[in-house]
Amino acid sequence: MSGKQIIIAAGIVLAAGTASAQQSTVNGAAGGAVTGAIVGGPVGAAVGGVVGAVAGTVIDPPPERVVSYVRDAPVPADTVVVREKVVVGQALPQTVVVQPVPDNPKYAYAVVNKQRVIVEPTSRKVIQVIN
Description:
elongated; 4 strands; single chain
């Protein structure tokens, strides 16, 4: 694949938008490939794509008002204890009920193992653990 083809393919992927965390991995890979191709040709494109994919999976922290809401919200009736450690970037088990954050459908929260956690509602991926 030539450098022009890589740039065109990356542009098409980037135009698709960022609908989910998986999409940001694709965008990171494409953006890294474009940068790598410009700097180092085809080999740079391959290396840049891998580095960009890793960078694309980084989770942005929620806005402070979401953190404040979750910190101050009453404890939901459905709290749960799970054996698995709650880890940022990992999905909560299906047994955990998540509550939506009012006025911000991009976030939800739950109380798991006596910890408040902010999650992305569709993937249930933990974004932040509030101590």
